[in-house]
Amino acid sequence: MKPEVKARIQEIIDSTPIVVFMKGSKMMPQCGFSNNVVQILNLLGVPYETIDILADEEIRQGIKEYSKWPTIPQVYLNGEFIGGSDIMVELYQSQELEKMVQVALAS
């Protein structure tokens, strides 16, 4: 990955407590997995940002290398990679996600 792409990704992750790299946007998710994540975060009623990887090929490929995770969406809380759709569903169902999000927003 080019250093400037890595720097852009790092800047995005550092700029907001909760960020989702996904297909589409929170207003219009472009795949079911991305929609799952958006719905979970909306249910929690927390502020978050989304990055449409379909609009930027460098970010689309770079985020997979950055996180060492091959699939999209990818969720970061306070700069820490949490996972994708399945992990978010599990965390939400176990009620762990709400605690994690509250900590991220309080930091």
Describe this protein's structure.
53% of the residues lie in helices and 16% in strands. It is of the alpha+beta class. It has a single domain (3-106), classed as Glutaredoxin. Strands 2-1-3-4 form a 4-stranded mixed sheet. It is globular and about 40 Å long.
Distance between the first and last residues' Cα:
30 Å
| Number of β-strand runs | 4
What is the alpha-carbon Rg in Å?
13 Å
In which range does the helix fraction lie?
Answer: 40-55%
So what's the CATH class?
Answer: Alpha Beta
Whole-number count of domains: 1
Q: How would you write the strand order of the largest sheet?
A: 2-1-3-4
Class of secondary structure makeup: alpha+beta
Notable characteristics:
107 residues, alpha+beta, Glutaredoxin, globular
Q: What is this entry, summarized?
A:
The chain has 107 residues and is an alpha+beta fold.
Question: What's the helix and strand layout?
Answer:
Blueprint: H1 3-15, E1 18-22, H2 32-44, E2 49-52, H3 57-67, E3 74-77, E4 80-83, H4 85-93, H5 96-106
Parallel strand pairs: 1-2
Antiparallel strand pairs: 1-3, 3-4
Helix pairs in contact: 1-3, 2-4
